[in-house]
Design brief:
The protein is of the alpha+beta class. The chain is built from three helices and four strands, in the order E-E-H-E-H-E-H. The protein has helices at residues 45-55, 66-72, 99-104; strands at residues 15-17, 35-37, 59-62, 83-86. The strands form two sheets. The protein has a two-stranded antiparallel ribbon. Helix 2 links the parallel strand 3 (59-62) and strand 4. The relative contact order is 0.16.
């Protein structure tokens, strides 16, 4: 990507820093504050070290279905002290749920949203 958001790692095909993107209130997301990627199952030891020590991620939000987690396993970041949040868009009975049902409804219960207007990395 020409915009510098692409993050090249050994074990991930599609990781991007969403820093600089506009928010609904006219501000922008901060660099290294919200990162999105494809499957993290193949992260190398150096990838994990880079994400933890250089990027400084603190939380992982796993959007895979429960079946996908069971089939592919937790991945190498699960072995770290990062906070992990699993919010599947599919219920156990495979009924699709809305983003609000999967994410927002859980905030305010056991997994509160950040109060400073930022997003988890």
């Amino acid at each position: 990507m020409a915009d510098g958001r692409w993050m090249a790692l050994d074990g991930v095909v599609n990781m991007r820093d969403l820093g600089g993107l506009p928010t609904h209130d006219g501000r922008t997301t901060r660099r290294h504050r919200l990162i999105r990627s494809d499957n993290l199952q193949d992260l190398s030891v150096s990838d994990v070290r880079h994400l933890l020590e250089e990027i400084g991620i603190t939380d992982v939000v796993d959007l895979r279905s429960h079946k996908e987690v069971a089939l592919t396993g937790p991945g190498p970041l699960r072995e770290t002290e990062l906070a992990h949040h699993h919010h599947s868009f599919l219920r156990d009975d495979d009924r699709e749920v809305t983003v609000e049902e999967a994410l927002a409804v859980r905030w305010g219960r056991e997994d509160p949203a950040p109060r400073d207007g930022t997003f988890w990395a």
